[in-house]
Amino acid sequence: MPAQPVIYTALPQGDTSGVLAGRIGAWLVDFVVIGILWAIFAVALVILGFLTFGLSWMLLAPLWPIVAVIYSGVTVSGPARGTIGQRMFGVELRTTSGQTAPFIVAAVHAVFFYVSISTLTPFVLLFGLVRADRRMLHDLLSGLIAVRRGT
């Protein structure tokens, strides 16, 4: 017997009103937060590099994406269901069934976001404008939906 396909249904339209503007503002705030975290870890790695004869300096190049993915994964999969910026702008990310995203799903969502934003800018936003549920490509690929907080 063939396996039944999983059909994801979006949350009601009212839950997604205004999330695109909130997500843009949230991205700007999160960019600053990730920058601060990156600077703290970069200074620590530079100092540690003197103790490890420069070995820790090899982590400086991939440090930004590592910090960004872990930050997004931890905050989105946490009880607040969103990054600091998303919480400030009243946006939270959920699975399409309304549950909190597991860490790995939230981290993969962040990877999809950064890949899509670096290759499709500004078209990544246009994708959300044409969909009734305001989901972007990286949301669809990871099975998440951005909704207004508290709905």
From TrEMBL:
InterPro entries: RDD. Keywords: Membrane, Transmembrane, Transmembrane helix. It is a multi-pass membrane protein. It is found in: Membrane. GO terms for cellular component: membrane. Signal peptide: none annotated. The chain crosses the membrane at residues 24-51, 63-84, 104-130. Residues 22-143 form the RDD domain. This is RDD domain-containing protein. It comes from Alsobacter soli.
